[in-house]
Amino acid sequence: MATADQIKSLVKAYVDKNDDKFKTVVLQIAAHEAKIGHDTLARELKMQMDKIGVKKASVVQLTPTNPMLNMSFPGNDISELIVSDEINEKIHRILNEYRNRNKLYSYGLVNRRKILIEGNPGTGKTLTASVIASDLSMPLYTVQLDKIMTKFMGETSVKLRQLFDSIEANVGVYLFDEFDAIGADRSFDNEVGEMRRILNSFLQFIEQDSSESIIIAATNNQKLLDQALFRRFDDVLHYSLPTEAEIKRLFEYKLISFDKKFRINQKLLNAANGLCHAEIVRVCDDAIKKSILEDEVISQQGLINLLNERHAIYSCKEA
Questions:
Q1: Under 8 Å CB-to-CB from 154, ≥6 apart: which residues?
Q2: CB 254 within 8 A of CB 285
Q3: 61, 164, 260, 296: least buried by Cβ within 10 Å?
Q4: Cβ contact 72:139 at 8 Å
Q5: DSSP 61-101
Q6: Distance of CA 153 to the CA centre of its chain
Q7: E strand or H helix at 289, and its extent?
Q8: Confidence class of residue 12 from pLDDT cuts 50, 70 and 90?
Q9: How wide is the angle at C-alpha 201 spanned by C-alphas 196 and 207, nearest 5°?
Q10: What does the pLDDT look like over 181-214, one tens digit per residue?
Q11: Residue 169, SS3?
Q12: Of 148, 142, 166, nearest in space to 216 by CA
């Protein structure tokens, strides 16, 4: 069932003759209904949107004239995110505060909704944005930084303003991946000072933003970011390579659901040490595919061999 906020947004979109906003809210409702098992209603809502020009694909551009954003409706469950207890607690806090934002507003408080995530590649930063969007039944808007950054002086700042206008008009989760392209330390600036102007514009826009959208910036290298950024974010999540306990949980999540007889031993955990979450998941997927195609059970040694292959990639790179 549509929430009170969604009903108000539908009415406002109708009054304002804002077709894009109307379609977005309807698709938000459809995504929520699908999540709680009302597939028929969700399908009917999407079919009605198809009739007025919404593409059936799960990823569509926000508008035909705005290539800066890609919109998707993730279906990820929070159980897919294997992170430390500290990170897990912070994510639940973000979700809880968002759901109870009106209660916080009544006390003059604002929910956490500007989040910076930093850490090694493949540790779950992008997945976190998908999980948050899915759990809150909101669309995920991925910012296409290559469409924002231009060689023409001043044009990037104009595009950033347009982007934050979209953040205000279309409630959702907005992901700035590879955020250091915008947020790099101003002391690294080029001769004409364009990057300084871009960062100053971003700082101004994010400071002024009072929308109900969640803004997530993700970077692989926190050290590259300008220090002025950190106080603009409500929370900072530090991701790292998985611990042994997290590696075990990854294997359990991926493998035991496929083969309930599979057992995880210390030798297997040692072989996975040093790999990121995404690489371990990829190895598990490869092992499952091999099992299906060759009609054989997953062996410990076969899995270790696949893990060693992943390690060898980095050995070759260092050589």
A1: 197
A2: yes
A3: 260
A4: yes
A5: EEETTEEEEEEE-----GGG----HHHHHHHHHHHHHHHTH
A6: 30
A7: helix 277-294
A8: confident
A9: 125
A10: 675 555 555 544 566 777 888 888 998 998 999 9
A11: helix
A12: 142
Compute the Cα dihedral for 177, 181, 184, 186 and give only its sign.
Answer: negative
**Residues with Cβ within 8 Å of residue 22, at least 6 apart in sequence:** 10, 13, 14
Q: Residue 88 has which token pair?
A: 């897990």
Going along the chain from its start, the domains and CATH numbers come out as 1-55 (no CATH), 57-239 (3.40.50.300), 244-318 (1.10.8)
CA–CA dist 12, 66 (Å, integer): 22
The helix/strand count (H/E) of the chain reads as 14, 7
8-state DSSP, 142? E
CA distance 303 to 27: 41
Q: Which residue has the tokens 């954003």?
A: 69
- Class of residue 102 by CB neighbours under 10 A (exposed 0-12, middle 13-18, buried 19+): exposed
Single-letter amino acid code for the residue at 175 = L
The token duo for 112 is: 């956490």
167 and 211 in contact (C-beta within 8 Å)? yes
Using DSSP, state whether 60 is helix, strand or coil. strand
Instruction: Return d(Cα 187, Cα 252) in angstroms, integer.
Output: 45
What CA–CA distance (Å, rounded) separates 171 from 200?
24
pLDDT beyond 70 at 284:
yes
Q: Name the one residue in this structure whose structure tokens are 């359990």.
A: 252
Task: Report the predicted TM-score, pTM, of the whole model to 2 decimal places.
Answer: 0.73
* DSSP category for residue 11: H
CA angle (129, 100, 207) in 5-degree steps: 60
Residues 55-70 pLDDT 10s = 333 333 344 445 788 8
Quote the CA–CA distance of 216 and 127 in Å, as a whole number.
Answer: 11
Per-residue pLDDT band at 306 (split at 50, 70, 90): very high
CB 68 within 8 A of CB 179: no
